[in-house]
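Example 9 (inverse folding). The structure is encoded as follows.
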């Protein structure tokens, strides 16, 4: 048990930051966050005993909020220990130097060992096999990677698990889900369904589970009679949009599928 009643695990295998975060996430956690001086020093000591002086990945990244540094669990930086001024552009991730415990920004594609953190009351075991638990959302999530599905088949797939396509009700939820989708479906042209659609072809988009539409994040006004998607990364970059913007797609077309189970 470490600071703040969190559990930590070191991984000596060198991976990209994205692969490291996926490994942590699939185990019910995230890359470790150093949110104060005590935790930062604790993690440095843990790494010094495991990584033979190599620098390693922590959970900081500029990828989730368009160049702003956040932790991979989407919490803000309340403490920093940079060795040099950091870069504020997409594509950078945080590595800690050992034994100094100072931080440097590195290309997220570099290979480094890493440390995961887990809540001591982790609910991973409440989720079905092959589902991932999101502590921030308090939901189990299933990322279907076998093939792309049309809207009707995506709905049926989620129903077969007594779940629904993802629904989103705040900017914070949207930021988290957009990050998860980028992590699990990383290709530039990957399109992923959200559970919003226009069943009456009148521009009145509703959530598939009947929950209220109290938040939207369209990148342009949607056409009638279509189904909602996260805009693919290629569209985000080309149009200089905020990550996580929504678009619409023909419901007979195929896209990636993410199902949700609320706990």
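The amino acid assigned to each position is listed next.
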């Amino acid at each position: 048990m470490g600071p703040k009643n969190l559990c930590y695990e070191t991984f000596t295998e060198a991976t990209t930051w994205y692969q490291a975060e996926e490994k942590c996430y699939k185990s019910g956690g995230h890359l470790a966050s150093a949110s104060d001086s005590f935790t930062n020093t604790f993690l440095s000591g843990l790494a010094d005993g495991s990584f033979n002086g190599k620098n390693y990945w922590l959970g900081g990244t500029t990828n989730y909020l368009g160049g702003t540094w956040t932790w991979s669990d989407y919490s803000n930086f309340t403490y920093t220990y940079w060795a040099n001024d950091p870069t504020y552009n997409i594509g950078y991730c945080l590595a800690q130097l050992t034994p100094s415990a100072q931080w440097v920004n590195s290309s997220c594609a570099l290979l480094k060992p890493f440390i995961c953190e887990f809540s001591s009351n982790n609910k991973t075991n409440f989720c079905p096999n092959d589902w991932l638990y999101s502590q921030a959302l308090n939901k189990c999530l299933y990322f279907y990677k076998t093939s792309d599905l049309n809207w009707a088949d995506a709905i049926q797939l989620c129903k077969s698990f007594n779940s629904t396509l993802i629904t989103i009700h705040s900017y914070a939820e949207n930021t988290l889900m957009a990050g998860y989708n980028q992590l699990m479906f990383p290709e530039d042209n990957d399109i992923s369904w959200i559970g919003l659609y226009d069943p009456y072809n009148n521009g009145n988009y509703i959530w598939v589970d009947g929950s209220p539409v109290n938040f939207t994040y369209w990148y342009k006004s949607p056409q009638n009679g279509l189904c909602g998607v996260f805009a693919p990364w290629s569209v985000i970059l080309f149009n200089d949009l905020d990550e996580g913007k929504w678009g619409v797609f023909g419901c007979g077309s195929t896209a990636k599928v993410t199902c949700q189970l609320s706990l």
